[in-house]
Amino acid sequence: MAEYRMKTVFRHLNSGGNGSNRIHAFGQNNFLTEILSQKQQFIYSLPNAKLTAEQRQFYEENGFLIVQNLVSKENLQIYGERFQDLCDGKIKVPGLTMMRDISYKDHYTNEHVVNKIQDLFLDEVLFDYCRLPEVLDYVECFTGPNIMAMHTMLINKPPDSGTLSSRHPLHQDLHYFPFRPANKIVCAWTAMEPVTRENGCLVAIPGSHKGKLVQHDYPDWEGGVNKMYHGIRGMKKSEMEKRTYLEMGAGDTVFFHPILIHGSGANRTNGFRKAISCHYAASESEYIDVRGTSQENIAEEVIQIAKKLGVELRDYKDAWHLRGQLVRGKQVNL
């Protein structure tokens, strides 16, 4: 019945006069065919008024989308100053995970040592990023209206010590997440300062989000690898050569799919490369059991680290129950 009504509307739109005077809602394409093809075509994003057709198509084909100047310089300054105060010990936030670059593990904590802060939900100042309406409006294009902030980080890439430990191996973020579906998860990653090939911008393999989650392990790097920096096992050189460099300005934000293969290079400058990010998921998503899967190794590692910190986790998903925070809509499953 609905299809019949649409055909009737289309006949009315194209009726009256010769072909040169006809109205074509989608150029020269058949109205009904265009609607149906769009439903089949867009499987990695949802119908929305925020993304243009070109933006949706780009994300569908590549698995990522950069939106320029999305986050204000004023907000970035606030987050940067907060990071500095945390590194300098001026502010202490209980439970906030401060991670050190392996090359500086024996040094006093400062901006040169801390390469990542996780669990930003414990700090109201930094977690403000995850609630920004301008970010969530784009996130909703991928997750739908009920949004959970699941994994939150401020990433600092200090000048490399010469060991190349500031690299991040090519990986898929879904490796870390025990919830599905993958198509209802998206990362928002905002450059806090210009990111370039020289200071270790993100690299991604366009279209790799159409593949599957593969086995990850620690890479065998001579200079050592930072904790939790798992990489894809047996990455083929032919695949690596497809990578593209995502150079961005301060405030630019890239949204990307959790199966997209990506990583970052070493920081070969004397400055820093900071970014703030959040992985979001539809609250309708459901937890899965990762035992017996390629994700079992990361689950065991997280549980052991939590135990050393005095937190007993019965199951890997317990870690995500603690982290997940509702930021828009209603909480359903996660």
Automatic annotation (TrEMBL):
Q: What class of enzyme is it?
A: oxidoreductase
Question: Which InterPro entries does this one have?
Answer: PhyH, Phytyl_CoA_dOase-like
Show the Gene3D superfamilies listed in the entry: q2cbj1_9rhob like domain
Enzyme Commission number, as recorded: 1.14.11.18
**Family listed:** Belongs to the PhyH family.
Q: What is this protein called?
A: phytanoyl-CoA dioxygenase
Gene that encodes it = LOC106469915
